[in-house]
Amino acid sequence: MTVLQRSLVFFAVVAVLFGIQSCWRVQPPSGTYQVITFEFVLSNPPANAGTAVPGVWIDTNTKLSGLSGGTLTSSLPCAVMIDYTDNTWTFKSVEFTSVKITYDDGTVDLSTGAVKLPLRLAAREYETVNSVTGGRIVKSKNWILSGEIPNIVTRAEPFRLQMEGYFAKDDNSRVAFTIDQHFIIQKDNATKSAAEVLQDK
User: Fold this and answer.
1) Model-level pTM?
2) How far, in Å, CA of 103 to CA of 158, rounded?
3) Strands across the sheet with 63-64, in order?
4) Which of 62-66, 156-160, 181-185 has the weakest average pLDDT?
5) DSSP for 37-81?
6) What is the mean pLDDT of the chain?
7) Which helix (H) or strand (E) holds 87?
8) What is the pLDDT of residue 82?
9) Interatomic CA distance for residues 40 and 58, integer angstroms
10) Is the CA virtual torsion 110, 114, 117, 121 positive or negative?
Protein backbone atom coordinates (compact mmCIF):
# COMPACT_ATOMS: atom_id res chain seq x y z
CA MET A 1 0.00 0.00 0.00
CA THR A 2 1.43 3.36 -1.04
CA VAL A 3 1.68 6.38 1.22
CA LEU A 4 -1.16 7.99 -0.73
CA GLN A 5 -3.38 4.93 -0.25
CA ARG A 6 -2.59 4.85 3.48
CA SER A 7 -3.46 8.53 3.77
CA LEU A 8 -6.79 8.01 1.99
CA VAL A 9 -7.66 5.09 4.29
CA PHE A 10 -6.70 7.17 7.34
CA PHE A 11 -8.90 10.07 6.29
CA ALA A 12 -11.78 7.72 5.47
CA VAL A 13 -11.59 6.14 8.95
CA VAL A 14 -11.44 9.56 10.62
CA ALA A 15 -14.48 10.70 8.64
CA VAL A 16 -16.43 7.61 9.67
CA LEU A 17 -15.48 8.05 13.33
CA PHE A 18 -16.50 11.70 13.33
CA GLY A 19 -19.74 10.76 11.61
CA ILE A 20 -20.53 8.23 14.32
CA GLN A 21 -19.75 10.73 17.08
CA SER A 22 -22.02 13.31 15.51
CA CYS A 23 -24.85 10.75 15.56
CA TRP A 24 -24.30 10.30 19.28
CA ARG A 25 -24.65 14.00 20.01
CA VAL A 26 -28.10 15.04 21.14
CA GLN A 27 -29.06 18.15 19.25
CA PRO A 28 -31.33 20.68 20.97
CA PRO A 29 -34.78 20.88 19.36
CA SER A 30 -35.12 23.62 16.78
CA GLY A 31 -38.03 25.75 15.66
CA THR A 32 -40.55 27.93 17.47
CA TYR A 33 -44.09 27.52 18.74
CA GLN A 34 -46.99 29.91 18.92
CA VAL A 35 -48.31 29.19 22.42
CA ILE A 36 -51.97 29.97 23.13
CA THR A 37 -52.87 28.01 26.25
CA PHE A 38 -54.78 28.25 29.50
CA GLU A 39 -54.85 26.14 32.64
CA PHE A 40 -57.03 26.02 35.72
CA VAL A 41 -55.20 26.25 39.03
CA LEU A 42 -56.61 25.77 42.52
CA SER A 43 -56.90 29.10 44.32
CA ASN A 44 -57.70 27.45 47.65
CA PRO A 45 -56.04 24.33 49.06
CA PRO A 46 -58.55 21.55 49.82
CA ALA A 47 -59.88 21.98 53.35
CA ASN A 48 -60.46 18.24 53.71
CA ALA A 49 -56.86 17.11 53.19
CA GLY A 50 -56.12 13.84 54.92
CA THR A 51 -59.64 12.48 54.59
CA ALA A 52 -61.05 10.16 51.92
CA VAL A 53 -61.85 12.63 49.13
CA PRO A 54 -61.20 12.15 45.39
CA GLY A 55 -58.68 14.46 43.79
CA VAL A 56 -59.90 16.57 40.86
CA TRP A 57 -58.13 18.51 38.12
CA ILE A 58 -59.14 20.10 34.83
CA ASP A 59 -58.02 18.73 31.45
CA THR A 60 -57.71 21.67 29.05
CA ASN A 61 -57.09 19.56 25.90
CA THR A 62 -53.60 21.01 25.44
CA LYS A 63 -52.12 19.81 22.15
CA LEU A 64 -48.75 20.13 20.44
CA SER A 65 -48.85 20.30 16.63
CA GLY A 66 -45.36 18.83 16.09
CA LEU A 67 -41.90 18.26 17.53
CA SER A 68 -40.00 20.90 15.55
CA GLY A 69 -42.22 23.93 15.82
CA GLY A 70 -45.83 24.86 15.22
CA THR A 71 -48.48 25.51 17.84
CA LEU A 72 -49.28 24.61 21.44
CA THR A 73 -52.94 25.25 22.18
CA SER A 74 -55.67 24.59 24.73
CA SER A 75 -59.35 24.33 23.88
CA LEU A 76 -62.85 24.20 25.33
CA PRO A 77 -64.89 22.40 26.54
CA CYS A 78 -62.81 20.85 29.30
CA ALA A 79 -63.22 17.72 31.39
CA VAL A 80 -63.13 17.36 35.15
CA MET A 81 -60.70 14.53 35.88
CA ILE A 82 -61.18 12.39 38.98
CA ASP A 83 -58.54 10.32 40.73
CA TYR A 84 -58.17 8.48 44.04
CA THR A 85 -55.65 5.84 45.11
CA ASP A 86 -56.86 3.45 47.80
CA ASN A 87 -53.85 1.78 49.42
CA THR A 88 -56.08 0.11 52.01
CA TRP A 89 -58.23 -1.86 49.53
CA THR A 90 -61.30 -0.44 51.28
CA PHE A 91 -63.46 1.06 48.56
CA LYS A 92 -65.00 -0.86 45.66
CA SER A 93 -66.40 2.23 43.93
CA VAL A 94 -67.01 5.97 44.14
CA GLU A 95 -70.32 7.61 43.26
CA PHE A 96 -71.04 11.27 42.60
CA THR A 97 -74.57 12.43 43.38
CA SER A 98 -74.26 16.13 42.53
CA VAL A 99 -72.00 18.29 40.36
CA LYS A 100 -72.14 22.07 40.01
CA ILE A 101 -69.89 24.61 38.31
CA THR A 102 -70.43 28.29 39.11
CA TYR A 103 -68.38 30.98 37.40
CA ASP A 104 -67.26 34.06 39.31
CA ASP A 105 -70.03 36.16 37.73
CA GLY A 106 -72.60 33.86 39.37
CA THR A 107 -73.52 31.92 36.22
CA VAL A 108 -74.04 28.19 36.70
CA ASP A 109 -72.73 26.17 33.75
CA LEU A 110 -75.68 24.48 32.05
CA SER A 111 -73.46 21.53 31.16
CA THR A 112 -73.66 20.29 34.75
CA GLY A 113 -77.38 19.72 34.30
CA ALA A 114 -76.62 17.22 31.53
CA VAL A 115 -74.44 14.99 33.70
CA LYS A 116 -76.13 11.64 34.31
CA LEU A 117 -76.22 11.15 38.08
CA PRO A 118 -75.37 9.25 40.10
CA LEU A 119 -72.05 8.81 38.31
CA ARG A 120 -70.33 5.60 39.45
CA LEU A 121 -66.64 4.74 38.96
CA ALA A 122 -65.59 1.20 39.87
CA ALA A 123 -62.22 0.51 41.49
CA ARG A 124 -59.60 -1.29 39.45
CA GLU A 125 -56.41 -2.99 40.52
CA TYR A 126 -53.12 -1.22 39.84
CA GLU A 127 -49.61 -2.60 40.37
CA THR A 128 -46.52 -0.47 40.94
CA VAL A 129 -42.97 -1.79 40.52
CA ASN A 130 -40.08 -0.14 42.33
CA SER A 131 -36.41 -0.99 42.71
CA VAL A 132 -34.69 -0.49 46.06
CA THR A 133 -31.06 -0.40 47.21
CA GLY A 134 -29.31 -3.57 46.17
CA GLY A 135 -31.41 -3.97 43.03
CA ARG A 136 -34.29 -5.74 44.76
CA ILE A 137 -37.62 -5.34 42.95
CA VAL A 138 -40.63 -4.50 45.11
CA LYS A 139 -44.16 -4.81 43.77
CA SER A 140 -47.22 -3.35 45.43
CA LYS A 141 -50.88 -3.35 44.50
CA ASN A 142 -53.71 -0.97 45.30
CA TRP A 143 -57.10 0.15 44.09
CA ILE A 144 -57.38 3.05 41.65
CA LEU A 145 -60.66 4.92 41.27
CA SER A 146 -60.45 7.30 38.34
CA GLY A 147 -62.47 8.70 35.48
CA GLU A 148 -63.70 11.92 33.95
CA ILE A 149 -66.75 14.07 33.44
CA PRO A 150 -66.24 15.29 29.85
CA ASN A 151 -67.16 18.65 28.30
CA ILE A 152 -68.34 20.16 31.57
CA VAL A 153 -66.25 23.36 31.77
CA THR A 154 -67.37 25.52 28.85
CA ARG A 155 -65.78 28.89 29.70
CA ALA A 156 -62.12 29.82 30.15
CA GLU A 157 -62.88 31.75 33.33
CA PRO A 158 -62.43 31.24 37.09
CA PHE A 159 -65.07 28.98 38.63
CA ARG A 160 -66.17 27.12 41.75
CA LEU A 161 -66.56 23.34 41.55
CA GLN A 162 -68.93 21.68 44.02
CA MET A 163 -69.40 17.92 44.11
CA GLU A 164 -70.99 15.50 46.53
CA GLY A 165 -70.85 11.74 46.70
CA TYR A 166 -69.63 8.73 48.60
CA PHE A 167 -67.23 5.80 48.53
CA ALA A 168 -68.87 2.37 48.69
CA LYS A 169 -67.29 -0.53 50.61
CA ASP A 170 -67.67 -4.27 50.03
CA ASP A 171 -70.14 -4.51 52.92
CA ASN A 172 -72.26 -1.81 51.17
CA SER A 173 -71.48 0.81 53.83
CA ARG A 174 -70.69 4.31 52.58
CA VAL A 175 -68.19 7.07 53.32
CA ALA A 176 -69.61 10.43 52.24
CA PHE A 177 -67.52 13.35 50.98
CA THR A 178 -67.94 16.86 49.60
CA ILE A 179 -65.68 18.79 47.22
CA ASP A 180 -65.75 22.58 47.18
CA GLN A 181 -62.85 24.06 45.25
CA HIS A 182 -62.21 27.29 43.40
CA PHE A 183 -60.10 27.43 40.24
CA ILE A 184 -58.43 30.50 38.79
CA ILE A 185 -57.20 30.59 35.20
CA GLN A 186 -53.68 31.20 33.96
CA LYS A 187 -53.21 32.07 30.28
CA ASP A 188 -50.12 32.06 28.09
CA ASN A 189 -49.95 33.79 24.71
CA ALA A 190 -46.39 33.98 23.40
CA THR A 191 -43.89 32.73 20.86
CA LYS A 192 -41.46 30.28 22.46
CA SER A 193 -38.55 28.20 21.29
CA ALA A 194 -38.98 24.46 20.89
CA ALA A 195 -36.48 23.94 23.72
CA GLU A 196 -38.68 25.96 26.09
CA VAL A 197 -41.87 24.18 25.10
CA LEU A 198 -40.57 20.62 24.99
CA GLN A 199 -38.73 20.76 28.32
CA ASP A 200 -42.11 21.21 30.01
CA LYS A 201 -43.71 18.24 28.26
Assistant:
1) 0.78
2) 6
3) 63-64, 70-73, 32-42, 174-193, 159-169, 91-103, 119-122
4) 62-66
5) EEEEEESS--TTTTSS--EEEEE---EE--SSSEEEE--SSEEEE
6) 85
7) none
8) 97
9) 6
10) negative
